[in-house]
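Please describe what follows:
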Amino acid sequence: MHNMIVYAQKHGILKDHEILNQFNSSDSHNVLKTLSTTCEKHYMEHHGENIKRLLDDEYVMVGAKKYSYPLKYMKYEMQNNIPGFVDEKHVASTFAKVKAEVKELRLEKELEHTMTMRL
């Protein structure tokens, strides 16, 4: 739970008074579930935005490291950067989709290159 609170504060998802109000509630199970869902949703949206940027031939920064290739970024995320409150199955599913999309983009570029070479 501590990691979720730190994550929520660090990323501005919830303000301190919102967190305190939730913990003043008598339904601690619901508070934990809501906090977990909110943090996981934020992480996955942020992760999705990064992947979109990479697929658009942009780059993302993770700390001091610059990533410009989606699969390398995904590998790093899966090995080092998935918070404990995130269901790893969601990230693995995203990884599989990104892998397929990268493969498709690669095939499109090869086809485009082949077509230009023939002209």
Summary: Residues 2-118 form one domain. Residues 29 and 43 are 21 Å apart (CA to CA). The first helix runs from residue 2 to 10.
